[in-house]
Amino acid sequence: MRLYEFEGKALFREFGIPIPEGRLAGNHQEVHEIARALNQPVVLKSQVLTGGRGKAGGIKFADNADEALKTAEELFKIKIKGYPVERLLIEAKFEIQHEYYIGVTIDRANYKLVIIASGEGGVDIEETAEKYPDKIFRKSLSVKQELYSFDALNIAKKIGIPSEHLKTAAAIIVDLFKMFKAYDAKLVEINPLVLTADNRLIAADSRISLDDDALFRHPELKAIGIEKRHEEGEMTPREQQAHEWGIPYLDLDGNIGMFPGGAGFGIMGNDFIHYYGGQPANFMDSGGGPSPERIAKMLVLLDENPNVNAIFGARFGGISRCDDFAKGVVMFLKEHGLSKPIVMRMTGNMWREGVKIFENAKKENPKLFEKVEFHGIETPIEEISKRAVELAAGRGAR
Amino acid sequence: MRLYEFEGKALFREFGIPIPEGRLAGNHQEVHEIARALNQPVVLKSQVLTGGRGKAGGIKFADNADEALKTAEELFKIKIKGYPVERLLIEAKFEIQHEYYIGVTIDRANYKLVIIASGEGGVDIEETAEKYPDKIFRKSLSVKQELYSFDALNIAKKIGIPSEHLKTAAAIIVDLFKMFKAYDAKLVEINPLVLTADNRLIAADSRISLDDDALFRHPELKAIGIEKRHEEGEMTPREQQAHEWGIPYLDLDGNIGMFPGGAGFGIMGNDFIHYYGGQPANFMDSGGGPSPERIAKMLVLLDENPNVNAIFGARFGGISRCDDFAKGVVMFLKEHGLSKPIVMRMTGNMWREGVKIFENAKKENPKLFEKVEFHGIETPIEEISKRAVELAAGRGAR
Amino acid sequence: MAILVDKNSRVMVQGLTGGAGKFHASRMLEYGTNIVGGTSPGKGGLTVHDKPVFDTVEECVKQTGADVSVIFLPAVAVKEAAIEAIRAGIKFLVVIPEHIPIHDMLHIREEAVRGGTTVIGGNTAGIISPGQANLGIMPDIAFTPGRVGTVSRSGSITYYVADTLTRTGYGESTCVGLGGDPVLGSTFDEILLKFEEDPETKAVVMTGEIGGVYEERACGVISKMKTPVLAMVGGIFAPPGKRMGHAGAIVEGKMGTAKEKLEMLAGAGAHPCKTFKDIPETLKKLGV
Amino acid sequence: MAILVDKNSRVMVQGLTGGAGKFHASRMLEYGTNIVGGTSPGKGGLTVHDKPVFDTVEECVKQTGADVSVIFLPAVAVKEAAIEAIRAGIKFLVVIPEHIPIHDMLHIREEAVRGGTTVIGGNTAGIISPGQANLGIMPDIAFTPGRVGTVSRSGSITYYVADTLTRTGYGESTCVGLGGDPVLGSTFDEILLKFEEDPETKAVVMTGEIGGVYEERACGVISKMKTPVLAMVGGIFAPPGKRMGHAGAIVEGKMGTAKEKLEMLAGAGAHPCKTFKDIPETLKKLGV
Fold it and tell me: What is the pLDDT of residues A37-54, one digit of tens each?
């Protein structure tokens, strides 16, 4: 999960990494007060969980508090890649002498932590990496290793930090690496690390991504407002609803509601729909061993989505049990009701029990199953995919 | 440096190691209040930095607050191995089902951390270790290694902790080891770790010794009152004075003031005095490269000690410089004055400059040097030792 | 024959007394898996499904001769459980739980390499050598003994592939779930090498997925293998995954899109498949 | 000949621009020690006593061929400085500062063993191979080239022993200060073995001290040495040292009193001496 710039900078401060003087503002009056207190030219930085904020006009400068107030009023009105600007980080402006890049991430192919540094920091760092790989310095370490000052000093030297700043830069690199480990990070970046005209080294921006799954180890983060969230950006209302229910869900552009079991077939099922000429309306993952309630909620999300013409269902019971799945479907049919046609296939663990549940419910109330086409292991999943495309295209029930 | 029991227990609490309910009292009224609040039988534990406190009557029980008050009044009057009881730890009493021992220390011969555990905890653990080495379980780890729960569980099993308490005991062992590393300890002991009659595991006592030289890494300890101190017990007034001046110094029983350079010869010089029939009045170490002021203070300590009949001085300039040494001696002679005879030898780094300083000072005021017998590299140190013994025995100046 | 597990494997379950452990152990036993015991710290001495429970893996190994272990424990306990198994000499370890912290997986991997243990997972459905042993949470309905190996990052895909192989008469030698997490105990290349060494495995179906770097790592091995490899990659039509900052882009370069992965695998000599029904068609062409 | 350092050693100083580093470097140079450079992070490019200063040991080693280093830095910086030297390939390292945290020394020792570096100190006066090289803070006045090696935990004792050997015409091959700290980079036995291998060293004077466990460790080696060992132990009349809790007593057993140490050393074949003047008398008897 990605942190806001101001959150990342709060962690930088905790680890002794120098950041610009500044404060967070939630409205333009606060901006005015902060700028007045700083009493010098300031930068106003929109706090949104997406990249390209500078190019989108989300970062502005102001020479004094009144100008800052005016600029803030404008910024609070804009959207960046669709995300409204709700908070601004107001910081003292500084003159740039040079921009460096320092990042730490995980090299998954080699199971190492890797420190990446460059003397050419800033937004074009990826381009630099591609065109001039020599300008990027890397050092890999095992997760058990410590980064020593002399290693960090070496990195600082290699990216051309001037002699008098080597020790400061090395301390920043060591602290960044410590922070990466201490908070179970997936990514920490200082980009740019600025050498100011008045010869200070400052982390001008922060980019941090933490491992959701390790958040339990860091209850102290909750105290400063850092809680589990999406990797980037904000959510559509339906994504928001799914998030609250704990269901991994993404809206897509098509008209077939995807109701698969497991993330793996969740992804590949979407390809199948494409192969047969359809367009999925969403991506969804049931998670391991979903309860009947969860299954029912997944169907609610799809049934209430006006873009959805038909629903594609697939369940191969592994850790998930077909009886729980069937119970959830029946619960949905009874309590919510189905307004779109659905075609689905169910097999795997406890499939016999699942089938019995369907049969009993159907016997009780056949109307519930009017729009349901139900298959077992005898029908290949390709046939189900093809049928879902037909249903969505309005080629109706057979 | 050794911690008080209550300080050690505060660190236990921080690391999640269960301790008895209780509080520290500085006078008998506080004892009364605490015992009243606990509202159950209590134990009153004298807080002194020395062992054998139980056998010396420093631990008492009381059934209620009034009895605790009376007992406290008595305890505040006693001395334990010469140390007055100034604070009492008042804790809820518990019934003992079994006592275990768990300790972590450094195995210097093998450069390892070692966890020691026994199913026979309590004050006789050393005897147990000697007579029944099988009852002591040890596990060595490198300073870089982590102690895992399963290792700790294994230790807990080996010392006979009952099944239902294994996980709790393992957690205590893991936490104790973490604490050992986190605070740069030389020793941490829970003795006894008590399994109470009502089936709780509790650290009934704490014994902790931290590395003075690593205190700079733990400024947080200062906040709870843990500062640099002697390993054990309190100091004589002269030791206290020396401590304030930062001079390692110990009072001994003899009459020869020992003024050697370096801890190594500080110890061996004492043997030499013994070989020639004398008795040193102290042990002292100048520390590396002492300033003239420090040299002068060392002499003040000896000259003002009424037990001292004569002073034995030796300086082999290494990191210490003979010129600084000579300056310090002259400073002392001028500003304080020498009341006892001194015999000393000086050689090593900058000895020529040192000799010149003595000669100039003597030329200026020969009276200052009346009681000083001064030698260079030409006289073996054995002769100086012998002479110091003569002087202390009143066999006067030659 | 099979890889990693067979009917002679002596299998233990870490977390045998827990809900999931107990449930799936009974399923595994029903399938005929040779489960010899399990662990649950503090519960040593109990039995579950008539199998002995120990406090530590070390004891379980000593008493039962276990050489394979399956972990059914909460994610927070997996790091230590896995290291315990590795240090106790377990040679093959199946890590079922999901949501294991990534840094923990890096620790586990390091210990595994040092200890010579093969780890699969976390977040895997497990492994099955049909007719011999079923370790994890896979439903046995889809599987039948046979001559094609499968390796996948996804449990559901494994079922569909096996379902297809079973339906078309090929059957499976062993089906391996690498697991769905971003950092895994084993990689495609490592498992492919084991299939290459198994004389009974006549072809391998490898199913990858958008994101990550494990498919790319496999290319070097595939190009040297004699056993034919069929490759599917899920997410061809998925929107491109977000990169983790500049650092992610720099470290992983152009890796990660499903289309590129499939092309690289094909370039290395794998036979690409679009949907499951392409698998038997390809196998037929290859004469397997 | 000599052990550990001689006139061909290429010596660097870590902390060359600091007060102590600069002062003692000049003394060492005056003695004829082959100092080739030094380090001071952030001050690379300067020179001190005409010797180049580098930011890192790695650079210094590359540029000057340094193979021996002496550390003159505050105690808090020693851990990293020592590990830096070891990783940069320094084969012999002298750690002068005192008050180094014990846990830091354990780290250093581990790295040293792994890197094959001999470390002496912390809290050592250093090492001198008279007439060839003087590393540390020892005054040269006491030393003269000769045929007896010395090893001690104390600087001042080293001076007195050398003073005695010089005065009586034996002279010294190499004098090693192990250091006064509770945990040291090297132990008596390790240094004694080096003397045993040196054909020019005809006897070794080892001076120990009350407390610690290093004298006891030496016994095994002494009993196998051909070169005679003379032993002194300081603190025969000192009050017994305090044990560190029960754990200290359990781990170190009966070790530690000076009298017991001297008896153990004598038992292992060392020749005990009481005061310095016993040294030449013993050497004479041994025909050295």
Answer: 999 999 999 998 877 888
For residue A382, give the nearest of C20, C237, C276 by CB distance.
C276
Pair (B87, B101) in one structural domain: no
Q: Is B136 helix (H, G, I), strand (E, B) or coil?
A: strand
The pLDDT tens digits for A134-167 are: 899 999 999 999 999 999 999 999 999 999 999 9
Chain mean pLDDT for chain D: 93
Q: Between A106, A231, A377, which is nearest C242 by CB?
A: A231
How many domains does chain D fold into? Answer: 2
Q: Which of B364-373, C239-248, C255-264, D15-24 has the lowest mean pLDDT?
A: C239-248
Task: Check: CB of residue A329 under 8 Å from CB of residue A360.
Answer: no
Instruction: Give contacts of A166 with chain D, Cβ < 8 Å.
Output: 41-42, 44, 55
Q: Could you report the predicted ipTM of this complex, rounded to two decimals?
A: 0.87
- Neighbors of chain B with 3 or more C-beta pairs under 8 Å: C, D
For chain C, give the number of residues.
Answer: 288
- Pairing relationship of beta strands B83-84 and D118-121 according to DSSP bridges: unpaired
- Nearest CA to CA, how far is C43 from chain B (Å)? 7
B165: which chain C residues are within 8 Å (Cβ-Cβ)? 42
pTM: 0.88
What CATH number has the domain bearing residue C26? 3.40.50.720
D82 touches chain B (CB under 8 A): no
Is B347 in contact with D27 (Cβ distance < 8 A)? no
Confidence of residue A398 (pLDDT cuts 50, 70, 90): very low
CATH code: domain of residue B165: 3.30.470.20
Q: What is the pLDDT of residues A260-274, one digit of tens each?
A: 877 788 889 999 999
Residue of B nearest to C77 (CA): B149
**Closest Cα in chain C to A114:** C251
> Quick check: A311 and A389 in contact, CB under 8 A?
no
One-letter amino acid at D24 equals H
Catalytic residue status for D271: no
pLDDT band at D254 (very low <50, low <70, confident <90, very high): low
Domain, as residue range, for A27? 21-92
Query: Is C250–A271 a contact, with Cβ atoms under 8 angstroms apart?
Result: no
Chain D, residues 133-162, CB within 8 A of chain A, namely none
In a domain, C176, yes or no: yes
Q: Given a cut of 70, is residue A73 above it in pLDDT?
A: yes
Q: Which residues contact B395 (CB under 8 A, 6 or more apart)?
A: none
Residue-wise pLDDT tens digits, D69-78: 999 999 999 9
Identify all chain B residues contacting C69, using CB atoms and an 8 Å cutoff: none
**Are residues A185 and A122 located together in one domain of the fold?**
yes
Decide if D103 and B351 are in contact by the 8 Å CB cutoff.
Answer: no
CATH classification at residue B336: 3.40.50.261
What phi, psi does C284 have (nearest 5°)?
-65, -45
> How far apart are the CA of C154 and the nearest CA of chain A, in angstroms?
5
What are the tens digits of pLDDT across the range A288-344?
Answer: 678 899 999 999 999 999 999 999 999 988 767 889 999 999 999 999 999 999 999
Q: How many CB atoms lie within 10 A of CB B294?
A: 18
Q: Quick one: pLDDT at residue D244?
A: 59
- The answer to whether D247 faces chain B, any CB pair under 8 Å, is yes
Residue D132 in domain:
no
Q: Give the model's pLDDT for residue B232.
A: 54
Beta bridge partners of A161: none
Say yes or no for a CB contact (<8 Å) between B150 and C57.
Answer: yes
Query: Which of C43, C45, C56 faces B150 most closely, judged by CB atoms?
Result: C56
Closest by CA to B207, choosing from B239, B165, B179, is B179
The answer, yes or no, to whether the previous bond of C41 is cis (omega within 30 of 0) is no
Q: Which of D99, D103, D107, D246 is catalytic?
A: D246
Would you call A200 helix, strand, or coil by DSSP?
Answer: coil
Stretch 31-70 of chain C: residues touching chain A, C-beta under 8 Å? none
Task: Retrieve residue A48's tokens.
Answer: 């949104």
Residue A318: is the preceding peptide bond cis (ω within 30°)? Answer: no
